[in-house]
Amino acid sequence: MSHTLPEEVLITEVGPRDGLQNEKQPVATDIKVSLCERLLAAGVSQLEVTSFVSPKWVPQMADAAQVLAQLPRRAGLTLSALTPNMKGFEAALASGVDEVVIFGAASEAFSMRNTNCSVAESIERFRPVAEQARAHGIRLRAAISVAFGCPYQGAVPIDSVIDLVRRTRDLGCDEIGIADTIGVATVGHVKTVFEAAAREVPLASLSGHFHDTYGQAVANVYGCLEVGVHRFDSAIAGLGGCPYAKGATGNVATEDLVWLFQGLGIKTGLNLDALIESGSWISEQIGRRYSSRVGAALAARRATAEAQTS
Ligand code: HMG
Ligand code: MG
Questions:
Q1: Which domains does the chain have, with CATH numbers?
Q2: Could you give the CA distance from residue 288 to residue 160 in angstroms, rounded to a whole number?
Q3: HSE (CB half, 13 Å, CA atoms) of 30?
């Protein structure tokens, strides 16, 4: 099944959350807020800001409420946060988020490591979150981790992914993100999984979340486009990783996705130059090499041009 490419895609920027959650050195709240402000100025309209999780498990997200308190709210802007249980949901609600994200795993082993409970238990924790999200008019998104491979179990059967798609659909999720947590997926596998998922839920409610560990993320996004998926997560500067998926590197870089979409004439609403400034800024702030391939190439081209004119 090959779809006509869409006119526009919806990108959820996950840099402040997925991008920073795994940083060993504490990143100051002010830097997180400034990153969010820069991303909003670059046109981001769906921003995954933080997580309301145990600060003992993920210390980097301990300032979730402080970050959210300093961000603007406006029509057309969706600020979201991860909420694994009611404790997280209540804190997210008090912080005025527009969207909460429940996150489950397609393998029992990853579910235990990431959330200290079985897949079935995680669904029971999500149930009241889903009910309360609906009651408060908060958008509900699910993330399905390790859908293409698990660092503990290895191969993940497609049936386990589809089982979780059905269970999260039955909770009433507005969006279900299928995630390649450890970045091992290749495009044929991606298309098979998304085609199977699209038999369970409307295509418009599916999104792709690709880590780029094996350099396949842009190809995987293109595979999703061919299936008809038009929602994607990405992280500025390709930051990211999950504390419970050792060796997994960052998300696909937002800059790299925007370059892909620009080349295809697909609208993103994002300003590539502003993204590159944000990406190189945050990389410098946290002492990392700027790892968006597109961002680094365009920044180098600009530096050469400036040197020639000065
Ligand atoms: P637990 O230990 O089973 O929970 O953790 P508990 O209910 O037994 O509570 C134990 C302690 O945690 C208590 O505190 C609770 O108050 C506290 P204590 O009495 O010991 O001081 N607690 C909380 N504190 C703050 N916020 C909360 C919360 N819940 C309990 N919401 C839990 C269960 C899920 C909380 C824990 O396992 C956890 O926080 N895990 C973190 C998981 C995580 O953030 N992983 C990374 C994000 S997922 C990801 O990156 C994947 C994704 O990008 C997609 C992909 O790429 O795959 C989304
Ligand atoms: Mg992730």
A1: 10-309 (3.20.20.70)
A2: 36
A3: 1
Q: What is the chain's Cα-based Rg?
A: 18
Residues 6 or more apart whose CB falls under 8 angstroms from that of 95 comprise 52, 64, 65, 68, 69, 81
What atom of ligand 1 comes closest to residue 101's alpha carbon?
58
To test the pocket of ligand 1, the residue of 13, 50, 54, 129 to mutate (highest count of ligand atoms within 8 Å of its CB) is 54
Give dist(CA 56, CA 63) in Å, integer. Answer: 12
Output the average pLDDT for the chain. 96
Query: How many helices (H) and strands (E) would you count in the chain?
Result: 11, 8
Is this model's pTM higher than 0.90 or not? yes
Ligand 1 contact via 222 beta carbon (within 6 Å): no
Residue at 90: amino acid letter: E
For residue 87, the model assigns a pLDDT of 98
